[in-house]
Recover the amino acids of this structure.
């Protein structure tokens, strides 16, 4: 795997391979020493042009736990502030001999464009409304850990699907692994056309609650308020929020998921966020081994022996 730009570039076999590798790297997180030399001598640049807490921190931890050198690029304190173009910025970073660039950008398509300007591996950490492939991988891993697989599971993705890169990546990954996906939300927050999307659509959350394995709640972006898209938070919560009353209608083994950050009291009530069925923190925890797996697949060499008494030794493939 040369880059990770989109879940659309991954086959079901690729997804399964990354999830298997994630399980191996997750075991490292239970050790007293959580660092292995799998990427010793490699350099990973974190190029985040958008704010991020979970994604940026977990990619940073993932690279360091694989013993890579990490360089954090901040647009606010770089020559971008002086008018330097994105291409010049990327070519400058690439000229320093880096191995991978993890990029988040507000414009869709930027990670793919970067591959034209650098010989480094490019990993998409979120681009516009387009894709967020590592979020999809950690979501798949979280569900797999609870249910064994996604095959035959019914997953509702509820909220602002049209403006959500998480939703697009999740829909693709979930369905490739055999899940049934139902989109729930006001028509104004769904894509104008769903032709070709492997999903069902429901306007009423209450009609599907009792038949779900997973309810996946998307953050309501408050900039949508006051427009024709979303009249008020109160109205949205009344129709689509996971309230305490709706929580009681979920099956005992159903999972409540959210990519974060959560708007408590809007798309999810505090009682739902803190319920034992909520796996939001499990999703966060999965972010580190998932991103370790991705980094290793794009810039690792050889076969990594995790079962060796001295973990971290590479052996010939």
């Amino acid at each position: 795997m040369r880059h990770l730009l989109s879940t659309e570039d991954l086959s079901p076999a690729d997804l399964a391979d990354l999830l298997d590798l994630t399980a191996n790297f997750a075991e490292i997180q239970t050790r007293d020493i959580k660092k292995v030399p799998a990427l010793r001598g490699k350099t990973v640049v974190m190029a985040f042009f958008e704010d991020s807490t979970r994604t940026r921190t977990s990619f940073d931890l993932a690279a360091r736990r694989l013993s890579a050198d990490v360089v954090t690029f901040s647009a606010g304190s770089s020559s971008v502030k002086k008018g330097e173009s994105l291409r010049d910025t990327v070519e400058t970073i690439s000229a320093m001999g880096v191995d991978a660039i993890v990029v988040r950008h507000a414009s869709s398509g930027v990670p793919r464009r970067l591959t034209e300007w650098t010989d480094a591996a490019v990993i998409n950490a979120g681009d516009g409304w387009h894709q967020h492939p590592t979020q999809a991988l950690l979501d798949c891993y979280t569900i797999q850990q609870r249910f064994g697989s996604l095959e035959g599971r019914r997953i509702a993705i509820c909220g602002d699907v049209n403006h959500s890169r998480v939703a697009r990546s999740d829909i693709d990954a979930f369905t490739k692994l055999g899940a049934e996906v139902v989109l729930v939300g006001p028509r104004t927050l769904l894509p104008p056309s769903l032709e070709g999307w492997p999903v069902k659509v429901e306007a009423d959350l209450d009609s599907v609650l009792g038949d779900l394995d997973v309810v996946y709640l998307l953050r309501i972006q408050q900039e949508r308020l006051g427009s024709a898209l979303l009249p008020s938070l109160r109205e949205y919560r009344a129709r689509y929020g996971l309230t305490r009353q709706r929580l009681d209608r979920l099956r005992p083994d159903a999972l409540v998921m959210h990519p974060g950050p959560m708007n408590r009291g809007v798309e999810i009530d505090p009682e739902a966020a803190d319920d034992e069925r909520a796996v939001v923190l499990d999703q966060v925890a999965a972010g580190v081994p998932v991103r370790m797996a991705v980094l290793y697949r794009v810039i690792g060499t050889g076969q990594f022996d995790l079962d060796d008494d001295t973990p971290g030794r590479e052996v010939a493939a």
Observations:
- Residues 133-282 form a domain with the Rossmann fold fold (CATH 3.40.50.1370).
- The first helix runs from residue 12 to 28.
